[in-house]
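We both want to read discrete structure tokens more fluently, so let's practise on a single case. Would you supply a protein for us yourself, any chain you care to pick? Would you write everything just below, so we can both look at the same thing?
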Amino acid sequence: MNITYLGVFATAVLISFLLTRKIRDLANARGWAYAPPTARHIHTELIPRLGGVAIYLAVVLVAVTLIAFPSLPGVEMAVSRQTVLYIVGPATVVFLLGLYDDFRPVKSYMKFLVQAVAATLMYFGRFGIEVPPLFGSHRFSWLALPLTIVWVLWITNAFNLAHDGKYRELQVAPANGEWRETFWIEPSGF
């Protein structure tokens, strides 16, 4: 089963890799780019819009293929169609928000609200944080939904905060001096 997950992940990464350049070129050709908004922003040139399209399409393409062809050679469907939909549904909500935001800026409170709705959908699809019993048998199950929402908001916005230069600890400068976004946290970071 772990080989299946690794294969699915590798396929999605490969598709995303192949689509990223094409979507970037399309965005540049159509003039769908914007200048860095502030001096602390890590980019110095125009930034093409549609950044999440390649990743979203890759994940959805792999998910739909697994649902449509559950008996592909070497693939055992380890998750149900319903489970895939509980993941892809909220991801689609967040993706559509990001796509809309690329062309018509959305206020932060509206982004948080939509992301919280997506987190709530995930929670009710059984993809939430489960709070274990604390202090003996006291259960704090009422914390599960709020913790799930905070977790999804944190994960969803972590890249944007690093991308905007607010948390440079999430970025590194390679030897050639060009800034590249990574999720490597330097020892001097947090």
Remarks:
- DSSP finds five helices and four strands in the chain.
